[in-house]
Write a structure and sequence with these properties.
The structure is a single chain. This protein has 4 helices and 4 strands, in the order βαβαααββ. It has 124 residues and is an alpha+beta fold. A 4-stranded antiparallel β-sheet has the order 1-2-3-4.
């Protein structure tokens, strides 16, 4: 499978983290999602119903980031991957969650967690 749909830089404020101030104050998270999808039918028909609607995926990701807080961005990334795989046309998904304001005491530009899931639930 080499066909891909990518959503890059989806931003939303969430309240994820293990510290009280993260849960209280929130922070911006950025999410990248890459969907491996066979686009043969969509390319032939030129019909949205024959492909994965990235707008719907974007809304679902936003809802997860702004929704119920979790301690770890690993958990958030996994939940996003699970939602993406609800559409049976998604064969594989790669999700990267960025936490650029992570509570780290040294200079850094970003913290990311990436999960890869496929139909069989494999993790890479």
């Amino acid at each position: 499978m080499t066909d891909r749909i990518a959503l890059s830089g989806l931003r939303a404020v969430g309240y994820h983290g293990v510290f009280d101030h993260e849960r209280r104050d929130g922070q911006e998270f950025t999410v990248d999602v890459v969907l491996d999808v066979d686009m043969t039918a969509a390319a032939a028909s030129d019909d949205l119903s024959d492909t994965v609607d990235y707008g719907t995926i974007a809304v679902a990701v936003h809802e997860l980031v702004t929704g119920e807080p979790v301690n770890l961005i690993e958990t958030l990334a996994s939940r996003i991957a699970d939602v993406c795989l609800i559409d049976s046309r998604v064969e594989r998904v790669t999700v990267t969650v960025h936490k650029p304001s992570a509570p780290i005491t040294v200079a850094f530009s970003d913290v990311t967690v990436t999960v890869v899931r496929d139909r069989a639930g494999q993790v890479e």
